[in-house]
Every structure is written in structure tokens, then in C-alpha cells.
Amino acid sequence: MKFGVLVFPGSNCDRDVAYVTRDLLSQPTRMVWHQDTDISDIDVVIIPGGFSYGDYLRCGAIARFSPVMREVIAHAQRGKLVLGICNGFQVLTEAGLLPGILARNQNLHFICDRVPLKVERNNLPWTQGYTVGEIITLPIAHGEGRFYTDKSTLAQLEDNGQVLFRYQGENPNGSLNYIAGICNIQGNVLGMMPHPERAADSALGNSDGLRLFKGILEQVPALA
Ligand SMILES: NC(=O)CC[C@H](N)C(=O)O
């Protein structure tokens, strides 16, 4: 399975993601510069974390105009997999591939921590390596991670089972309903604030994130 890791000016988790897909999982992986307009060779697009365009305007607000994003939208519309991690999640909401916004953290501070998360659903490629209700631990590192949306969209997200990860115990950033990660209604696009790629190598003491990437490689369950 070939992974494409997008690189914007200011991305800083691109190599960490490639380390997981290429070095830990032995999958072909291409770094995709944001001006690239042909991603037809890619199976799974990953939009990594970082500070694309220095977070000017709003996190992800400028990156979503990069030429590659037209191709990412088409890729998603064909039902192919797209994962946005942290800044990548912000880019996906700005691009309209996922609903809602990521607003400034409630305490107005940049938060860098390791947090418990509850896995809400496991019948999608992203979470099939976990059990439903399992509590995992992943790192977070963001200034704008407070998931927010209008009431009816929030109700739809909950009713459709689009919330895949929820903060457990404390709500680190004030996200509505403790939301840490959501997918689109079809399930092929996932955005999450926590960083699975930073918890993928047992040398770092936690490999809860590796199971997410391994899940992608498994036989993909039928998407809605
Ligand atoms: N780690 C990240 O991707 C950070 C995302 C973004 N720059 C923020 O601070 O919210």
C-alpha cells in the first residue's frame, strides 16, 4: 500500500509519519510537496502535523489553497483513504472534507501532553486494530485543537458514529463532547488532533499509535 505524506512549508511531522510507514511498516512512501498536482500513484494520503504557513490567519487556512489539495479532495471523493493528523485535521476542516472547526484551546495555551483517549468504533480501517471502548494513550501538541461545530452538525456526527476518538477524563482543550477525532460520513477521511505517529515505536515507550497505521494495511472493511 503506497502512502503519500504531504509537505507544506512549515510541516514538521512529515518525517515522523514517513518513519512509521516506510521504516516501521515497510510500505512504499512518497513525500508529496504541496505544489504537486499528481497523486494518482498514492493509496493513502496523510496530511501531517506542523505549522503550515506559520499558522497565519488560522491553522490550515492557507494550506488548504495549496495545489495538491484539489487532488486530495478528488482522492477522498473517490473513496480513497485520507488521514489528517493535528495540523492535518485543521487542513481537512478548512478544505471542507470534514465538518467543524478547530478553535483556539480553551485555556489559550499551546498544550503538549500525553492524553487518554477512548476508541468509540472499530469497524473502519483506522480503528480496526483497537477494541470498542478501549482506552489508549497518545501525545497531543497543539494551540488550536478545540473542536467546535453547530448543534445540528454535532448531533449528526454523534448519530452517524463519526466520532472515532474522544478524550477520556480531562478535556484538554475544551472540545465539544470531548471530541479528539472524527471521520466523514463515508469513513474514508479521518482527522484527529492526537499524534499516532509519535506513539508508534516501542523504543519510545508507547506504541498505541502503531495499531492505527497497521489497521490501514489490513483488509479494509466495507466503507458505508
Ligand atoms: N502539532 C501540530 O500539528 C500543531 C498544529 C497547529 N500548529 C496548532 O498549534 O494547533
Automatic annotation (TrEMBL):
PROSITE patterns registered for this protein in UniProt: GATASE_TYPE_1
Main location: cytoplasm
Pathway assigned to this chain's UniProt record: Purine metabolism; IMP biosynthesis via de novo pathway; 5-amino-1-(5-phospho-D-ribosyl)imidazole from N(2)-formyl-N(1)-(5-phospho-D-ribosyl)glycinamide: step 1/2
Keyword Nucleotide-binding: yes
A Pfam family it matches: GATase_5
UniProt-listed InterPro entries: Class_I_gatase-like (IPR029062), PRibForGlyAmidine_synth_PurQ (IPR010075)
Localization in the cell: Cytoplasm
Name of this chain's protein: Phosphoribosylformylglycinamidine synthase subunit PurQ
Active-site annotation: C86 (nucleophile), H195, E197
EC number: 6.3.5.3, 3.5.1.2
GO molecular function: ATP binding; glutaminase activity; phosphoribosylformylglycinamidine synthase activity
Transmembrane segments: none
UniProt keyword annotation of Hydrolase present: yes
Entry function: Part of the phosphoribosylformylglycinamidine synthase complex involved in the purines biosynthetic pathway. Catalyzes the ATP-dependent conversion of formylglycinamide ribonucleotide (FGAR) and glutamine to yield formylglycinamidine ribonucleotide (FGAM) and glutamate. The FGAM synthase complex is composed of three subunits. PurQ produces an ammonia molecule by converting glutamine to glutamate. PurL transfers the ammonia molecule to FGAR to form FGAM in an ATP-dependent manner.
Subunit architecture: Part of the FGAM synthase complex composed of 1 PurL, 1 PurQ and 2 PurS subunits.
Cellular component, GO, one term: cytoplasm
Keywords: ATP-binding, Cytoplasm, Glutamine amidotransferase, Hydrolase, Ligase, Nucleotide-binding, Purine biosynthesis
GO terms of biological process kind: 'de novo' IMP biosynthetic process
Annotated catalysed reactions: N(2)-formyl-N(1)-(5-phospho-beta-D-ribosyl)glycinamide + L-glutamine + ATP + H2O = 2-formamido-N(1)-(5-O-phospho-beta-D-ribosyl)acetamidine + L-glutamate + ADP + phosphate + H(+); L-glutamine + H2O = L-glutamate + NH4(+)
